[in-house]
Amino acid sequence: MRWYWGSIIRSGMAVVVLAGLYISYSQIPWTTVRSTVTEQRTYSWSSSDGQNTIMPLNVTLELLAGTLPPIQKYLTVGLSSVKRKKESYLMDTLHSIFLHSSKEELSEMVVVVLLADFDQAWVNVTRQKIASLFDTYLKQGQLLVIHAPQDLYPPLTGLKRNFNDPPDRVTFRSKQNVDYSFLVHFSGNLSQYFIMVEDDVTCAKGFLSAIRKHVLKMGSARWTTLEFSKLGYIGKLYHSEDLPQLARFLFLFYQEMPCDFLLSHFRTLLMQDKVIRRRPSLFQHMGMFSSFQGTHNHLKDDDFAEEPADNPSALILTNMKSFEKNDPECAYNQGSEFFWGLSPSKGDYFMVVFDEPVLLSRISIVTGSEQKDILFSAVVEVGYALQNSKTPTASSCSDFHSLGSFHAGQFEMRDIDHTVKSPASCLKIEVTQKQIDWVRISNIRVWESNMAIK
User: Fold this and answer.
1) What pLDDT does residue 71 have?
2) Which of 252, 339, 355, 442 could form a disulfide with 313 if both were Cys (CB 3.0 to 4.6 A apart)?
């Protein structure tokens, strides 16, 4: 009953807020304006093709560099950047995005950079630097640089001091909300999905493919936001069809609270109660100094993996006794958790039984922490036959092939598909010698082969 009334209340809130948005903006015409390119390669852009006329935001942004892609892409990566008092990380962020993406992934992606500082000299210098370093991506429609004139912004001083923030902090976070509102607004029709990042992040290799797999895994389940980082507003994915509402939501409530708070409220107002976050994270915060006053910033996502594994759905089995809540599944879910078991004996096993047979390309297994609780003696095998697939047990898997032994508590093997051509039904770690020390299996990571299964 609590859930029922809670749902009604949240539905009512959503109706009230969205209705307010509609009333506030429904009288503003939704237009598409593309003026002729000037000698400075800037032109106006109001991001709509007329198909989505709900609560239009009547702003016109400048495209400083890049060529609009002729067709809609799969993913837009959007980030906003301002002049920093200390180190700048924008170029490093762009290098990470492009270098960690394959040619095929780049063909389905467009990166939008909003230069959101009011210092026009900084904007011009930064645009020129981007044009010099990333000219190829600009010409191919894979990178766009935009700017919002200062006269488009609402008042940024004398605002409400919610959370008892000092006035300069209120101005900074309020402007940041408007920055992201404009960025989201511009990106509305560029792709099927939009992901928000910051200008001081590094990306996991193949992050677009990992995002696509996670979206497909969601199937027909309804969602507003999928998260690919646990930090702030880094790695938040949206349907592009929701961007018009998000842009107006950020603009309307720009002075109320920080952007990450507003994004959480937007998600709940659109009836997604729980956070849906993929592990491991695909984006890591790398900046050492904040864009606000240059203060030192220690934020790190301990769930980040530079080369995220596929880890297809599987059942985890073991006869090792776990300690407290350090269950076997913890070693496979790619989070910060781990399996912690009592002293193993010879013949003890830890097995991953895949829901569907998998052609493997790489396996990585890490045990121990700070030279403690290492699995010293064990072999890794893959099995190709599986009986009773609906309710598998350790004895269900057979026809094993040995891949190798542990070294210093770790196992790593690449290019497995070059020698093992058949899909594996299970992966087994078998202890070959009794040990006194307990065992911590920190993570088991599995990568699927891109080679066609013959």
Assistant:
1) 93
2) 355
State residue 159's pLDDT score: 82
Asked if 336 and 353 touch (Cβ cutoff 8 Å), the reply is no
pLDDT at 56 (0 to 100): 53
Q: Are residues 246 and 193 in contact, defined by beta-carbon separation less than 8 angstroms? A: no
**Cα atoms in the 13 Å half-sphere on the side-chain side of 355:** 4
pLDDT for the residue 287: 54
Q: Calculate the CA 62 to chain-centre distance.
A: 27
Predicted pLDDT of residue 2: 40
- Spans of the chain below 50 pLDDT: 1-11, 15-16, 18-19, 21-44, 47-55, 292, 294, 452-454
Give the orientation angle of helix 167-186 with respect to helix 259-269, to 10 degrees. 50
Q: Which residues fall within 8 angstroms of residue 380, CB to CB, at 6 or more apart?
A: 363, 365, 402, 403, 404, 405, 406, 411, 413, 427, 428, 429
d(CA 65, CA 143): 8
pLDDT of residue 288: 58
The pairing of strands 73-81 and 191-196 is parallel
